[in-house]
Design a protein that fits this description.
The structure holds 2 protein chains of 2 kinds.
Chain A (H helix, E strand, L loop, with lengths): L1 E9 L4 H14 L4 E5 L9 E9 L13 E4 L2 H6 L9 E5 L15 H11 L2 E5 L1 H8 L5 H12 L8 H12 L3 H17 L1
Helix pairs in contact in A: 1-6, 4-5, 4-7, 5-7, 6-7
Chain B lengths: L4 E6 H11 L4 E4 L7 H9 L6 E4 L3 H14 L3 E6 L2 H4 L1 H10 L5 E7 L13 H7 L3 E2 L4 H18 L3 E6 H4 L1 E7 L15 H4 L3 H21 L6 E3 L4 E5 L3 H11 L5 E4 L8 H9 L3 E5 L5 H12 L6 E2 L14 H12 L29 H15 L5 E3 L24 H12 L6 E6 H17 L4 E7 L18 H7 L4 E5 L4 H16 L3 E7 L3 H7 L6 E4 L9 H5 L5 E3 L5 E3 L9 H5 L5 E4 L2 H9 L2
Parallel strand pairs in B: 2-3, 2-4, 4-5, 5-7, 6-7, 10-11, 10-12, 12-13, 14-15, 15-16, 16-18, 17-18
Antiparallel strand pairs in B: 1-8, 9-11, 19-22, 20-21
Helix pairs in contact in B: 1-2, 1-7, 3-5, 11-14, 15-19, 16-17
Classes of the chains: A alpha/beta, B alpha/beta.
Chain lengths: 194, 616
């Protein structure tokens, strides 16, 4: 088994935490996992990408065109990730637009961006993690909702039992565990909704 | 081994834990991406086992602390990023002469690709330069294993050992077998050995000969390091470090037929291990991240041994010499060298006809540096001055971006004062120079330069942006929490020293204007702009944040707030009026002070919140 999961988003959205929970769960389930993150410079606001590889792998980085799934925590970043996609790549895109500051050029609306993605990507799932998280009381849960979406859409339960990923959430998040477990469950609906 | 468990672990944490398993007593470092998490881990997890760890004021000091401990016989490590090693070069070169008593490992985290660095120097060269052996790991587990091995190797030879990691080892999380730490090996007492430890010329001359003899036993010993040889084919790939993982993937998954030799010690080369492997090969391909350090030495070695076989690597431009390796670049080079088809090029990638806008890193919402740069810009513009903004290394380097454009030079830690002085004198006093330096960088290498400015009477306005932590690398503590920058500046002879809060925009502008007139009169002026890092403030006071919002009726869409302070929380709407994202605003109040129409209003108890924030 080999799974290449490419995460993309904006600094501060919790991609590294997301990847740690996922990678740790994979290891708890008996697989090898590598999570490659690049941070430093500014902690917030820049583009961030994290490579998560699970199973029969050695190198830390996913080849171009080699992602099985691209998870975009922000919609503009989904477009930056297409280098890693092939025709079969599943896209999971959070319906969230974070304007790059100080840009004079016009940014398309979130609907325009979504339509552009729908026109070009066969296996596209748009998730509303931002508003789901806001309903749950804090946008901080956005990433755990997306994790639930990824888990259900990719049917990861065939490799990582749900109890194992919940254990990983408990061990790695430490704060607000109950809310995070609920956020994960909320995310699961996106896989069933197909 | 029942006390060992497998965990997903960051490469840097694995290194730190490996050092604890090897019984280190002392660890020192200066933060710098991608090295910082090693000392952080030891501060969090080492104390309960009795490990002494510290953030030193700079890399040279850190080096000396760890080196001194090892001279006394304790096991120690020092950590820094690649360019940080330059700061420590002075003690480093001498440490090979004196040798050490306890195991001593220098961990240098190189940053190929310059994700957050000013250059991508390959510190394996330093090993060659200094007669210090270099161990190079390829993943987190290997990094943990090698740091233990390196400490033992160091102690066995009484010689410093360097471990070179790269971003894709330091900042990769992977499965690591974690075992209980060993009792820290402190020294029983320092034994005086002036003939060895005091490098006056007579002693140093003797020690150079001894160093060369030690080097030849080290050259023999590296033969037994855990080099990996995977037999497969007459084509031989030789790697060191993370390149090994790409070679493995190429052979396992992408149809490359080759043997692989991974060399654990790129400096010095294990000559016998390499010649054994090479004599079985028709063709050798060298893959390494950084410069052709392995390749150059290999070519020299094979010339010596009279072995003629084609060698290909970076010197033949088979692999990228700029930036990190990737599986794509490795496969491009390998397939070219072997004359086979690259399966990765037949993947059907997709393209979408929309180029997303760039998203450069920006100041965080509420960052006091953004306020400082705004105030500096307004006051210099108002007075008609055209200063040279001499920048430095830290979060405030982002002042290079629009709309500030207030970093004209920026080369290395502490360079703002030194280069600024050079520009002043080089233009025969015609330039108003404003060095901008952070608190941590000031204590790092700004301090001797400040002494020089006063001593050599070089008029400058020095802005010290004191946000109370070393913010860029994740908020590590530094001497600013203990030592008064004001007192230092006064003690070295600066007459004009002022402290202001960058969140008080009016006072900040007035003070900068006043200080510029002091400098025009030939003086050195220091302004300390003090306000805690916004990320740290909100982390310390979770849930106590006051906010601001835009009164849409009062907003006249002038754009001053979003165009001049560039706060990521302030977004222009379609009608060009401002909107503040309540999830991003941290209540710094600067936009409200800047708004000429009083359209930005507080929500919650701002005064109490800013008071708490000021306690940092």
């Amino acid at each position: 088994m080999r799974l290449n999961i490419y995460l993309t988003g904006v600094g501060g959205q919790g991609l590294v935490t997301f990847a740690t929970v996922l990678g740790d769960a994979a290891i708890r389930a008996g697989y090898k996992a590598l999570v490659a993150e690049t941070h430093g410079l500014s902690q917030r606001g820049g583009s961030v990408d994290v490579h998560v590889r699970i199973g029969d792998i050695d190198a830390p980085l996913i080849p171009r065109g080699g992602a099985d799934v691209i998870v975009a925590f922000e919609i503009i970043e989904a477009f930056r990730a297409v280098d890693y996609a092939n025709e079969d790549t599943v896209f999971i895109v959070n319906r969230r637009l974070i304007r790059p500051p100080m840009i004079k050029q016009k940014i398309p609306s979130i609907n325009e961006l979504e339509n552009l993605l729908r026109k070009n990507i066969r296996k596209l799932y748009v998730v509303d993690a931002y508003s789901d998280a806001a309903k749950l009381g804090n946008i901080i849960y956005e990433n755990t909702i997306i994790l639930g979406a990824l888990y259900s859409i990719l049917r990861l339960n065939q490799y990582i039992p749900q109890g194992v990923i919940e254990e990983s959430i408990k061990m790695n998040l430490r704060r607000d565990i109950d809310k995070n477990l609920r956020a994960f469950t909320i995310g699961l609906k996106y896989g069933n909704a197909k | 081994m029942s006390n060992c468990i497998i965990r997903l672990m960051l490469g840097n944490h694995a290194i730190a834990h490996g050092a604890m398993e090897a019984g280190i007593a002392v660890a020192a470092g200066y933060p710098g991406t991608p090295s910082s998490e090693i000392i952080e881990y030891l501060l969090d997890n080492g104390r309960e086992f009795g490990v002494y760890a510290e953030w030193s004021s700079n890399e040279k000091v850190a080096y000396e602390v760890a080196y001194g401990a090892a001279l006394a016989g304790a096991r120690s490590i020092v950590t820094m990023k690649h360019v940080g090693l330059n700061v420590a070069m002075d003690p480093l070169m001498s440490s090979a002469y004196t040798g050490v008593k306890g195991g001593f490992v220098i961990i240098t985290a190189d940053d190929p690709g310059m994700w957050s660095s000013q250059n991508e120097q390959d510190n394996r060269w330093v090993g060659l330069h200094a007669y210090i052996p270099v161990f190079e790991p390829y993943d987190p587990q290997n990094a943990k294993d090698l740091v233990k091995l390196a400490l033992e190797f160091s102690e066995r030879h009484g010689h410093p050992v360097m471990m070179r990691t790269v971003t894709r080892v330091s900042h990769v999380r992977g499965p690591v077998t974690v075992c209980s730490p060993e009792k820290p090996r402190y020294s029983e007492g320092y034994v005086k050995e002036p003939r060895r430890h005091a490098l006056v010329p007579a002693n140093a001359r003797t020690l150079k000969g001894e160093l060369l003899r030690r080097w030849s036993t080290i050259e023999e010993d590296v033969e037994d390091a855990p080099h990996v040889y995977i037999d497969g084919n007459k084509n031989l790939i030789i790697t060191s470090g993370v390149a090994f993982t790409y070679a493995l993937e190429a052979v396992k998954n992408y149809g490359v037929k080759a043997s692989i030799l991974n060399v654990v010690t790129p400096v010095p080369l294990p000559r016998k291990v390499i010649t054994d492997a090479v004599t079985r090969a028709d063709k050798v391909i060298v893959i390494e991240e950084g410069d052709p350090v392995l390749e150059q030495q290999l070519k020299a070695l094979l010339y010596d041994e009279d072995i003629r076989v084609p060698i290909m690597g970076k010197m033949e431009n088979l692999f990228n010499r700029v930036g990190e390796l990737t599986i794509n670049s490795v496969m491009d080079g390998l397939t070219k060298a072997l004359g086979i088809v690259n399966p990765l090029t037949s993947i059907k990638t997709i393209s979408i006809d929309y180029s997303p806008p760039q998203r450069p890193p920006v100041f965080c919402p509420g960052c006091p540096h953004a306020a400082s740069f705004y105030e500096l810009k307004v006051s210099t513009a108002r007075s008609g001055a055209r200063p040279v903004f001499s920048g430095d290394i830290g979060c405030y380097s982002l002042g290079i971006n629009n709309p500030f454009n207030e970093q004209d030079l920026l080369t290395n830690m502490g360079s703002s004062l030194g280069l600024g002085m050079g520009i002043y004198h080089g233009t025969n006093g015609k330039t108003l120079v404003i060095p901008i330096i952070g608190d941590s960088t000031f204590f790092h290498t700004g301090l001797p330069a400040l002494v020089n400015a006063v001593y050599n009477k070089t008029p400058m306005l020095i802005l010290i942006l004191d946000n109370r932590v070393t913010a860029m690398t994740g908020g590590q503590p530094n001497p600013t929490s203990m030592i008064s920058i004001e007192n230092i500046a006064k003690a070295v002879g600066v007459d004009y020293v002022r402290t202001i809060d960058p969140f008080d925009t009016k006072k900040a502008q007035d003070t900068i204007t006043e200080a510029m007139s002091v400098v025009k009169g030939g003086g050195v002026a220091v302004i300390i702009m003090r306000r805690g890092c916004a990320l740290e403030a909100t982390r310390l006071n979770r849930g106590h944040v006051a906010r601001y919002y835009v009164d849409a009726n009062a907003c006249r869409a002038c754009g001053i707030c979003y165009n001049l302070i560039a706060c990521p929380a302030i977004v222009p709407l379609e009608n060009r009026k401002a909107w503040i994202d309540p999830n991003m605003c941290v209540g710094c109040s600067v936009c409200a002070q800047v708004c000429p129409y009083n359209a930005i209003k507080p929500e919650g108890n701002v005064k109490e919140w800013l008071g708490k924030w000021a306690e940092m």
